[in-house]
Amino acid sequence: MKFGIVVFPGSNCDEDAFHAAKEVFGQEAEYLWHKDADLKGADVVILPGGFAHGDYLRTGAMARFSPIMNPVRAFAERGGPVLGICNGFQILLEAGLLPGAMLRNKGLQYRCEHVHIRVEQTDTPFTSGASAGTVLRIPIGHGEGNYFAPPDVLQQLEASRQVVFRYTDAQGRIDEAANPNGSVNAIAGICSQQRNVVGMMPHPERACEALLGGVDGCAIFASVLRWVGSPLKV
Amino acid sequence: MRARVFVTLKPSVFDPQGQTIADALHSLGYGNVADVRQGKYFELDLATTEASAARALAAEVADKVLANPVIESYRIEVD
């Protein structure tokens, strides 16, 4: 299967995502420049981390106007799997492909460390191979990951099981000390109502090789391979 | 015409930057500063001479770009 990795001016995790898809999982992968008008036949689209368009105004605010977002939106509406990681998650929120918004981290610190997240839902393309309740150890690196949604939207998210990942301690318990940014309901990742668009603040692409300190991010990539129906070619 | 757009977090949204500034002011002895909310300020030069058109245009760009309606509200002044 083919991964399409969107590159905005200011993206800086595009090569990590490309490496994970191509070298770790042996899949086809291609960069999609933000001015491109089509997805070049990608089966899955990743919006990587970084600082798209310098994150001027608000994180992700400018990127949603990039031409590539038109085919990304159409792909998402057709049910295509789209994963936004970190800045990619922020872009999906600004583009209205996922509900809510990001605020500055509680405490105002840029947090760059490994965190634990618990898999809450397994009926998304990016968690289909995981078990509910599994705790993954994956790195974060962000200053604006404090997920916020108004009470009515939050209630809707919970009721329709759209919270895909929550920050927990190593044992999978929700604990304020384990929430690195103050996100409401300890939310680390959510999906769309259709469930095919997923946004997450932690970086699974940085956790796919033991050399890099952990392999828990493999669960995300293995899930989407399984979901699209391609056998592992490692 | 010129429009000034003030964008702030909605009252229901926690403002960690404003809170930090308020805490700093309190530690400097400004106990009478009860609260601080931080925001953004934009000056728009508009190619129109009508105040109502200027206000409408400023509101349109505020809705579309300058503010995120999920977390922010805005106020416009025109002259």
Question: What features would you describe in this structure?
Answer:
The complex is a heterodimer of chains A (234) and B (79). By secondary structure, chain A is an alpha/beta fold. Chain A has a single domain, classed as 3-Layer(aba) Sandwich (Rossmann fold), CATH 3.40.50. Helices cover 21% and strands 25% of the residues of chain A. Chain A is built from five helices and eleven strands; from the N terminus they run E-H-E-E-H-E-H-E-E-E-E-H-E-E-E-H. In chain A, the strands form two sheets. In chain A, strands 2-1-3-4-11-10-9-6-7 form a nine-stranded mixed β-sheet, sandwiched between helices. In chain A, strand 10 and strand 11 (197-200) form a beta hairpin. The relative contact order of chain A is 0.18. Chain B has helices at residues 16-27, 51-66, and strands at residues 2-9, 39-45, 72-78. Chain B contains two helices and three strands. Chain B is 35% helix and 28% strand. Chain B starts with a strand and ends with a strand. With 79 residues, chain B is of the alpha+beta class. Chain B has a three-stranded antiparallel β-sheet, covered by helices on one side. Chain B has one domain: Phosphoribosylformylglycinamidine synthase subunit PurS (Mth169, Chain: A), CATH 3.30.1280. The longest helix of chain B has 16 residues, at 51-66. The radius of gyration of chain B is 16 Å and the shape is elongated. The chains are: A alpha/beta (234), B alpha+beta (79). Chain A binds chain B through residues 57-58, 61, 93-94, 99-101, 103-108, 146, 148-150, 182, and chain B through 9, 12-14, 16-17, 20, 65-66, 68, 70-71.
